Amino acid sequence: MSWSPEIENGFEKLTQKAPADYFQGRRAANICRPDNVIAFLRSDAEALKERTFESRPHHRQVLILNLRTGGSLSVDGAVYRLEPGEAFLVAPYQFHFYLDTDQRDIRWLFITFETKDTAELLPVTNRPIHFDEPLAQTALSIAQGFYQPDKSSEQSSNQIVIETTSLLSRLSSLAAEQAQLFSQTDDSRRDHVIIRKVNRLLHERLSVGIDVVEIAARLNLSERYLRKRFQSMTGLSLGSYLMHYRLDRAVKRLVHSDASLTEIADDCGYGSLAAFSRTFTAKMGVTPSQYRKQSAK
């Protein structure tokens, strides 16, 4: 069988080389091994905002690759600007939602996955990272592979996981190169200032049962104006946002602390254990105790 001159020449050069040690080779380091990979594209900004709060707090990593149209997102109270050609990784259980975009027509690719190698992802979490053409091509291949008719086959699934591993490794390298250039993007626009102030108030006063009336008063805004502006920014009413914020904090405490259910109910401003259990079960489909047991498996 004949090979191309490029391949022939490449192997010819290897005839002059040999390993210094036949038992010590290259070992993998700082590699994230993803599993249960899902890929999907969002093309409508309004639909993106609406679907944000349809999903429950979860244990999956969420990688966002902006292919078209800049926009902003809020992650655990901080606001980040995401330009075309930038990626952003949201960690499990982080409270995140999408704000305004430069236009309604967007191309934001989402690759979500599970992994036990969370430490390896810390350098690429909660920061916009510029990505290149090869990475975009890998992301496209992952998305196309996910929707192949034989996606349930072992070979197809293995290929998607391998490509996602490669993508995350490349993203980590790009993050290291860009480390000195990064600073948190906290837009100074009035709308985003309101978002940050609301999040700060919730962080500080959730346990005392803060409500929309108190938030408006502390921000020196009329309740009507605040509700209207918040709805236009996030696509969600401020009352619903409060409910999701409480639920998200409760989930984090159930998963990451040994606090009693009564302590969690108080910390999240539910007023009583009964109110906490009733609301949590209605939204999550299981009781707080059941959720804690499931997350510990």
UniProtKB/TrEMBL annotation:
ATP-binding as UniProt keyword: no
Residues in HTH araC/xylS-type domain copies: 196-294
GO molecular function: DNA-binding transcription factor activity; sequence-specific DNA binding
PROSITE patterns: HTH_ARAC_FAMILY_1, HTH_ARAC_FAMILY_2
Signal peptide: none
UniProtKB keywords: Activator, Cytoplasm, DNA-binding, Transcription, Transcription regulation
Cross-referenced InterPro entries: AraC_XylS_family_regulators, Homeodomain-like_sf, HTH-like, HTH_AraC, HTH_AraC-typ_CS, Tscrpt_reg_AraC-type_HTH
Protein name, entry field: Helix-turn-helix transcriptional regulator
